[in-house]
Amino acid sequence: MRGHAQQEHGQGDGQSDGQGDRHGHAHGPQGHDGPGCCGGHGAAGDVIERAERLCQARGLQFTRLRRDVLAAVAAEHKPLGAYDIAERMSAPGRRVAAVSVYRALDFLTEQGFVHRISSRNAFVSCGHEHGAGAGLVFLICRTCGGIDEMTAPAVESALDQTLAGAGFTPTSRILEVEGECGACRERGDPPDTAPRA
Ligand SMILES: [Zn+2]
Ligand SMILES: [Zn+2]
Prior knowledge:
By secondary structure, this protein is an alpha+beta fold. 34% of the residues lie in helices and 12% in strands.
């Protein structure tokens, strides 16, 4: 149940949406660069502590795998794909299968500890206290690959009105907006146009 009202960008890994020049995915497998650009997500430790507390309250098991996957996602300022996560969790002699990561991600997404960014097919952690059905806006920076999560009540009510007018019932209302974050614009970094590896 993941309908997405998307803005600007198609879905999947689309390299072929005919958008021309500025079509780059700035995040690489090499981790992120320098100070975060898009505002705080809360420390990784807080995210995990909160998840642990909520799992306990909900009578759910916060297994080692689920914790490790959440920790990997929370440690990044950028959306991470399941294979990236599996790679980070793997060590010599300890191979973590992407399918296990996907299963853990399903759980974490369902519980609201991570969100799936459909335009990237990747995941970010969430330490916010918004409700399960909240409308969310993700600001995805093409220059640094950073991502910021916001709630926008004005957008949400306008969207609700539009959808109601169309007789459409959303299962989720998640907007993904690509562009350049304030910090990158100040630095004057050109957007990274390198294609995704
Ligand atoms: Zn959230
Ligand atoms: Zn940026």
